[in-house]
Write the structure tokens for this entry.
Amino acid sequence: MKFGIIVFPGSNCDRDMMHALQDDLQQEVVMLWHKDNVLSMFTKDDCIVLPGGFSYGDYLRCGALARFSPMMEQVINFANNGGKVLGVCNGFQILCESGLLPGVLLQNDHQKFVCKNVFIKSENKENIIGKKVGGGILKIPVAHGEGRYFANAKTMEELKRNNQIVFRYCDENGEINFEANPNGAVSNVAGICNEGRNVFGMMPHPERATSNALNNIDGRLILEAFTHLN
Amino acid sequence: MPPRLNFLPLWLSTTIMQATMHTPQPATLEQAVKLGLREEEYEKIKEVLGRTPNFNEVAMYSVMWSEHCSYKNSITWLKTLPRDGERLLVKAGEENAGLVDIGDGWGCVFKIESHNHPSAIEPFQGAATGVGGIHRDIFTMGARPIAALNSLRFGKLDNPKTKWLLKGVVKGIGHYGNCFGVPTVGGEIYFEHCYQTNPLVNAMSVGVIQAGKMVSATSHGEGNPVFIVGASTGKDGIGGASFASADISENSAEQLPAVQVGDPFEEKKLLEACLEAVELNVLIGMQDMGAAGITCSTSEMSAKGEHGMIIHLDKVPTRQANMKVWEMLLSESQERMLIVVKKGREQEIEDLFKKWDIHCVQIGEVTKEPILRYYMHDELVAEVPAESLVLGGGAPIYEREYTEPKYFQEIKKFDANTIPVPADVADIAHQLVQLPNIASKRWVYEQYDSMVGTGNTHTNEPSDAAVVRVHGTQKALACTTDCNSRYVYADPYKGAMIAVSEAARNIVCSGGIPVAITNCLNFGNPYNPEVYYQFVHAIKGMGDACRKLGTPVTGGNVSFYNQSEDGPVYPTPTIGMVGVLDSVDDKMTMFFKNEGDVIYLLGTQRNDINCSEYLHHIVGISQSPAPHFDLEEEYRLQETIIQLNKAKLINSAHDLAEGGLFIALVESCMQKNTGFEITTDAAIRKDAYLFGEAQSRVIVSVSADRQQAFEAALGNQPFTKIGTVKADGHLRIDSSDWGHIRNWKKLYDEAIEKLLGV
């Protein structure tokens, strides 16, 4: 099992993801350049990660340009063939822009960038992350200006019915309420997966919470869900 | 091809130039003065060139000899600062930033710089490009920036313009830093009336580099190609360096084109491409283009390498058509670098930058003769000796007069005995915790990505300085910026010593060993003798403190002309300091941990309310002497804390700063919602005991069972056992319950948001 991390020119969490997976989880990692277009070395056992950052500067709309990169065509094929894909923050935005995940990420309701620790909890055990995390409350940082998840009522209904909501923002006691929502996301949604349960997107950064030196290892469970550490 | 002039003597090439150069007319004295040059400087240029300069050349001298680039009014005094130390691998002024050895084959490059005037008129772009510019100074040396800090000064927060400036500056810093992907790990913000028209925006970057990988800002090797890489050149920021070297006024907004526009995405690509270029081992030298753009980078690199250059301006990628020669020479368009490459390796560099979709165009080549020649469509449009433009070369140096400021007489008149001790100190405490200079800056720092890079340990477990680990090593850096400018105003010598000492104190309280400083010297107009007095004495104080604490100056920035119709700003010599932790596990945090831990105050409690937030903003006295400070006492305190850390005898350490003991205690309680029980000393006035800002004091908490070992380790260090940590969250002073920490925290956290009306 190995991870492939895609580096867009404005990615800035690619190295953090690499450190988390390589140094803290002892996983094999391959860095992939956005202009390359070969994922043939990856199998369904592997996981492609779209890291956080500002992909192409994101002056238009977050993730709007990245979806047209040569590599994303390959990622879409990889996902459609059942390969596992994880998008974090900007990676989540790219997955929504490219249609691999439903919904959009809008500007935060308070119109400001926000970086802080938030609490999230997994909604169900019907996917690999949920199974790993259980109902536990995790402290994971967010850092985004456009992280307000939104989908129309029909889509939200489907997400709920299919158990596709992976994480929701909660307070430290696990209560899901308005105060615990850092960006105004609909139903406090922090992360979702596709119907096939192989494509995951989340705004919080698990790779920022895998190290004892940073005094937070709550993110390990999330990343371990993709490995053989299950 | 243009005529080859390389080996011709200057007088002959000048003759040729006059023959071939049709457009640029000789510049008049009037034009030179308009560009900010003084009459004697214009005469000096004529002397250097042996002829009358043309307009392009005068424009180049006007920016290179501006205060911003030449340090002409400050360099004499800057040279008195200590610039030597066993850890210094590159000394102040030698490169774009200082380089300090942190051990294990790693170095740290760091620098602070001001972007005050652009931020005053266009806060978002002004602050954003300030951040971009300082990061470029770091990665142009081949280092990867791992932390950013900033030091900000604004007018009173109840003023609508201040709100606009604060929101814009914070958004600008966040916009650039967050996208660029370097965490903002610390900083400081003060609000004082004197900064109403002229806010201060000082940005600091800290980078790391492996030994032997440093790239110098130099150029040599005849025939080596010169490339411009990065963004296109536009008309933005033309004359920015000169703009920064004049007083700010109502008309300053008309100078809007002098403000640059930033593109953090371009800079992020440039960073990665430049660091990859270092690995190719094809670079002779590299320098970023900040102030004075092409002029500054070509002249400084050439002067350092004792060579010259031929530059073809028509090859420079431009953002708009028909840019004039002087506009291209002076443009301060951001995200550009000048690189000199080993001849024959051009293709490798071009391929690398193509990979990153960045312009990379050869615009000239290195010449043996140390003359800079600029061509436009084969026509020679400017020709000057490189050396004559730069600091340390031909740039002028002035010694200014200074006299003791008249306001000192007012300060000397202050008598604390005329201030009655308030009957209700708890009420004062409630006001104090909500003063903008003391209250939480949460509204600000949550807009900055403090965690990208997964190195900053501060967000999860705060300490007095931000502790940032260095990936690939066990080490961590402790970083801080400090300056209480009210103290400097009251006593420039002592105030500057306090600024250095507070920075070092923050670092030792975080488990680090202070290693060096960078400074950002924000003052008023140097031609005002009272302002220059502040400058000279602040430099003396800074030098003395740096020598005592073993923290040499690696470089920095001078920003004069911070004044408006209201007068000069408080003298604000901001100190950026870096310390080293050999292991990130050596980190000490600032918050109380366990019920029953004993709280000690290291240092001496004094009857001193001088210059405090309490006196200034609650009592309303703006003129009082600087608080008590003694350098020997400070040194001993810091040595004690270093020893206590080594012996693992303390559970927390937090220095006393604005708001004194009470605020330090409350801040120590916030992380874990703890409380405390303390007893005051009847011999000291209660307001001074709780809110006084006498220096060289730190509170530490110690496990109850280690008190004996702790006290034994203190030696001659004065200390007082003042109380214990309580898990119930209540603050008890002399048996009176001041309520739960949650209530205090709410006031502290929300004060600035309330004032901003958000």
